Amino acid sequence: MDALMLSRLQFAAATAFHFIFVPLTLGMSVLIACMETAFVRTGKEVYRKMAKFWGKIFLVNFALGVVTGITLEFQFGTNWAGYSAYVGDIFGSLLAIEATAAFFLESTFIGVWTFGWDRLSPKAHMVTAWLVAGASNLSAVWILIANGFMQQPMGYVMRNGRAELADFMAVITNMFAWHEFMHTILGSFAVAAFFVMGVSAWHLLRKNETDFFKKSFRLGATLAILASLLVAIQGHSHGNHVAEVQPAKLAAMESHWETQKYAPMYLLQIPGQKGNVLEAIPIPGLLSFLAFNDPSAEVVGLNDIPADEHPPVVLTFLAFRGMVGLGTLMILVAGFAWLKRNTIEEYPKFLKILPFLIPVPYIAIELGWIVAEVGRQPWIVYGLMRTSDGVSNVTAAQVSFSLIVMSAIYTLLGICGIWLMMRFAKQGPVEGH
Amino acid sequence: MESLHYTLATVWFLLWGVLWAMYFVLDGFDLGVGTLMPFLAKNETEKRVMYNSVGPFWDGNEVWLISAGGVTFAAFPLAYAQMFSGLYTPLMLLLFALILRGVSFEFRSKVDSAAWKKVWDTCQFVGSFLPALLLGVAFANIFQGLPLDDTHLNQANIFQLLNPYGLAGGVLFTVMFVLHGALWLSIRTQGDLQQRASNLAIKLWPVLVVITVLFLAFSAVSTQLFGNYLQTPLLFVVLALPVGGLVLMRVYMGAARWWAAWGASAVFIGGTTMFAIVGLFPAIIPSKPNPANSLTIMNSASSELTLKIMLGVAVVFVPIVMLYQFWAYKNFSHPVDEAELEY
After folding, report:
1. Taking phi first (over 0 means left), then psi (-120 to 50 degrees means alpha), and beta for anything else, what does residue A246 get?
2. Which pLDDT does position A32 carry in this prediction?
3. What's any one GO cellular component for it (chain B) (predicted)?
4. Which of A140, A200, A266, B276 is the 20 to 30 Å CA partner of A97?
């Protein structure tokens, strides 16, 4: 493999791994802040205990999220020097703003939060929890504005052989970015909600700390139903936006080849890189309707897009189908959990399944990123710069070395981290540190 | 308005230097503490005290690296692209070291097993020592010049980087950080450990003086860092910072005023960084052997608009960051109490 392919693999691996930990951080930080708020408002010890128990798991997850995030900033320079030089004027400044306005806040106060249980008043401690939660989510805003620029570049002019900033407001109000942000945040809340429900279910089955875990479960179930419904609704309008500005991605998501009005959706479809291997049972107009809210709308097919601008169709198609399928499953599970939230101990079979469903929103959210990023190929900046032009002038040997070491370290850390989180989760709340 | 663009680029060049200086001052002491871990801690409790002395801070400190990197990316994208891809392997090593170190804080205390703790202690040491060394090597090589060609995209392999001057930079950084860390331990520990840490700091001081003088002499031979100073001798006042810091450090150590000594050490580290930065100007990465290919503030700066917006962001947020980090430091400035050991 050449340095380009290796760099793509490395970036994909680094991002995918980082994104195992980020969603839980985003969602759980808010849940913990809510628990601390409940403690401050009611003075009930159980809420403090909840914040500490979930906080302990959260910290392991948080550490892995932070250390794997640093890799990403470095990689733009090490592996994607061409890209960095070309769009650094805009993209670099967004990353710098993220560090200055959000990451500092998050990293400083996570230290205060961890060590401050006995040194700060409950109120001040609650404030640090909200600062961590707010800063984490603000981080996501800036990162996704940066990603939004890669998806739908705006607010720039071509000057001096690179994209230079022309309109900062256009960059930060990029609707693509805000769709991505909403979709990611809601998905992340679903991740945290299923995590809390799954762990609580495990303990409820064993009748450990029933009051504690029933409260946790109710909180998880409420968030789960809200997040999984909203992520689907919002996902639909996100899809409309993609259809409008990234026709090639939409065509790949649906493996849609012929440009046509009243474009159908096939109930049975096997995609291929050069056309569908099988398509049967069409529902006329459904694709047009889903993409543009109008069954007669024309949907551009891949045959009308130059072949060298096709994203990897099969992967994008399957990832999209997988995401939607798992999202539907999440709505059903969350709906049941929420309806039965007060009598949930009477459904032991359901409680037994829940811990195994913890990975579902994780997989859905990873698949979503595959749709977003693989579907953007061959562009590193949509319509502006090809991924192959962004890569650094480094040797394949150098990249192989770092890819191998990185994968080894990440695998070990991932195993340790997940094992530790499981251990804490099973241990249940214990007093003291 | 070419001149406004130039002024903005100059301001950003100085801020770029200040960010690196902040990073070296702040992460410097916790990297130093980590490097000292195997040598200074005699038992498990002392190890935990050492971990806890930096526990609340290291994460926030490391963000100064992210933001120094981010500002290089934002203000001088071409220099960022070249610096990071040209120093590919050492930066990857730095990164892996920092990753292992970061998780060692979180993982170490979580399992009650000597073997498990030993693994993370090793990660803590390697993850502290290697960054100190590599940052020194990388920056010394930048001072000296990287092999840039006229397309600005060239590779410096790791063996080229490990030249005598590069290694001298590595040694200087390591000693500087270790001493800085020993002073931090003198503030935040008690009893026997505190005694050993402060004795070590006092013993390391003459070593640091000698290495600093040698490094300066070596710089005069191997780099162009003195060019600006010889041209405008008034600039030599910048040297007052590191020299003053170095002298005061010894004075305060003698008086057992550890906070003041740490502050003097911070001034020394920050001053040394700024001395080099002023010497580099207007290059960000000088090219060796052909200076015409250097990356300068002019040929690698972002657009005027980006520099302006970034300046607005920096003027608002950097003071806020400093304020709350100062508050965090104030909250945890007491000697680590063995009753509340987190790690």
Report:
1. beta
2. 94
3. cytochrome complex
4. B276
Q: Where are the domains of chain A?
A: 3-237+315-426
How far is A155 from chain B, CA to nearest CA, in Å? 12
How confident is the model at residue A150, as a pLDDT?
93
From A212's Cα to the closest Cα of chain B, the distance in A is 23
Q: Is A383 on the interface with B (CB under 8 A)?
A: no
In a 10 Å sphere around its CB, with 0-12 CB exposed, 13-18 middle and 19+ buried, how is residue B302 labelled? buried
Contact call for B59 and A66, based on CB within 8 A:
yes
Tell whether A77 lies on the interface with B, counting CB pairs under 8 A. yes
Q: What is the pLDDT of residue B155?
A: 64
Average of per-residue pLDDT values in chain B: 89
Conformation bin of residue A383: beta by default, left when phi > 0, alpha when psi is -120 to 50: left
Instruction: List Cα–Cα distances, A168 to A163, A172, A181, B11, B202, in angstroms.
Output: 13, 6, 18, 21, 52
DSSP codes, B70-93: HHHHHH-HHHHHHHHHHTHHHHHH
pTM: 0.88
**Residue A348 vs residues A35, A162, A337, A353: alpha-carbon distances, Å:** 26, 60, 12, 9
Report the pLDDT value the prediction gives residue B153, as an integer from 0 to 100. 58
- pLDDT score at A287: 83
- Spatial CB neighbours of B294, under 8 Å, sequence gap ≥ 6: B145, B148, B283, B285, B286, B287
Mutate to test the interface with A, among B22, B57, B59 (most CBs of A within 10 A): B59
Contact A144/A175 with Cβ under 8 angstroms? no
A46 touching chain B per CB within 8 A: no
The residue among B246 and B337 whose pLDDT is bigger is: B246
Chain A residue with the nearest C-alpha to that of B334: A119
Chain A contact for B122 (CB, 8 A cutoff): no
- Distance (Å, whole) CA A82 – CA A79: 9
* A360: DSSP letter: H
ipTM over the 0.90 cut-off: no
Q: How far apart are CA A376 and CA A390, in angstroms?
A: 14
- Packing angle, helices B258-280 and B164-188, rounded to 10: 150
A321 sits in which H/E element: helix A313-339
The two three-digit tokens of residue A234, written as one number: 């919002």
Q: Which of residues 80-139 of A touch B (CB under 8 A)?
A: 81-82, 84-85, 87-101, 103-105, 107-112, 114-116, 118-120
Give me the pLDDT at residue B156, please. 63
Q: Between A and B, how many CB-CB pairs are < 8 A? A: 224
DSSP string, A243-255: HHH-HHHHHHHHT
Residues of A whose CB is below 8 A from B303: 89, 159, 164-165
Are the beta carbons of B325 and A109 separated by less than 8 Å? no
CB-CB neighbors (< 8 A) of B102 in chain A: 63, 66-67
* Backbone angle region of A270, left / alpha / beta, with phi > 0 → left and psi within -120 to 50 → alpha: beta
Residues contacting B242, CB < 8 A, separation 6+: B212, B267, B268, B271, B272, B275
Spell out which residues of chain A touch residue B96, defining contact as CB-CB under 8 Å: 405-406, 409
CB of A388 less than 8 A from some CB of B: no
CB atoms within 10 A of CB A144: 24
pLDDT reported for residue B85: 83
How far is Cα B178 from Cα B94, in angstroms, rounded to an integer? 17
pLDDT value, residue B59: 84
Task: Check CB contact under 8 Å for B89 and A73.
Answer: no
Nearest to A88 among B99, B302, B325 (CB): B302
Q: Which residues of chain A have pLDDT under 50?
A: 433
Which chain B residue has its CA at the smallest distance from A403's CA? B92
Strands A379-381 and A385-386: antiparallel
